[in-house]
């Protein structure tokens, strides 16, 4: 699933093509929006909020969430999108570009005056331009209030917006926390500060890295490296499934030496 830095880059790319431009055509290919016509609507800005994307117009906002596979493509007029036609959910045309949304599980039109209600449930966005000590403190308080293991709390978008499976695994490793460590036993403020630093560092990179090395296969400490030696100590990286509050399972990796398991935690299933 795209994480906050990926959606941020998408907003920048879409904003460069759309902001200040009027739509000359719109084609929504989902039943709920089949009769919607935004031709003539000027798009004022495109912004990301966590994993959500808002194309904010004069009167209407196009709100989307990418889910696991969703993408927005910016194409020169007349070019075909590099995706199967049956996955296309929206085509938005300006004088110079076609913006094509594919495989979007969430796509809706909202009145501009109330569009931020769609993201009001989210915790502080790690890439919020207005990020300050108050937002950092709110994010820490919300994480603490989850009462969940750190590996679950970091994925709770109501606590802090933008983090996904990759960031969760890398943050836990860098802070030396086993994913099942209760959030109350983790130094939360430094964790939030690190999450913000990493997200900002990666937001303008095409190749996200947590190690500082942008070469393929060298960018993560533990994510996607189950069974391989830890880059720090050489111990075999463990790989298991961790249940979230909604019952969904997410793959998680950790180093058993660098991230010792809390004694009273139930071991993760193999």
Overview of the structural elements:
Helix content is 21%, strand content 22%. It is α+β, with helices and mostly antiparallel strands and 270 residues long. The protein has 2 domains: 4-119, MutM-like, N-terminal (N-terminal domain of MutM-like DNA repair proteins, Alpha-Beta Barrel); 133-254, Helicase, Ruva Protein, domain 3 (Orthogonal Bundle). The strands form 3 sheets. Strands 1-6-7-5 form a 4-stranded antiparallel beta sheet, covered by helices on one side. A 4-stranded antiparallel beta sheet has the order 2-3-4-8, covered by helices on one side. Strands 9-10 form a two-stranded antiparallel ribbon. The two termini are 23 Å apart. The mean pLDDT is 94. Residues 221-260 form the FPG-type domain. InterPro entries: FPG_cat (IPR012319), FPG_N (IPR035937), H2TH_FPG (IPR015886), Nei2_N (IPR044090), Ribosomal_uS13-like_H2TH (IPR010979), Znf_DNA_glyclase/AP_lyase (IPR000214). This is DNA-(apurinic or apyrimidinic site) lyase. Its EC number is 4.2.99.18.
Q: What is the total number of structural domains?
A: 2
CATH class bucket of the largest domain:
Mainly Alpha
Largest sheet: 4 strands, antiparallel
Order of helices and strands: HEEEEEEEEHHHHEE
Low-confidence stretches: none
Strand content: 15-25%
Count of DSSP E strands? 10
Largest sheet strand order: 1-6-7-5
CATH fold description of the largest domain: Helicase, Ruva Protein, domain 3
**What is the averaged pLDDT score?**
94
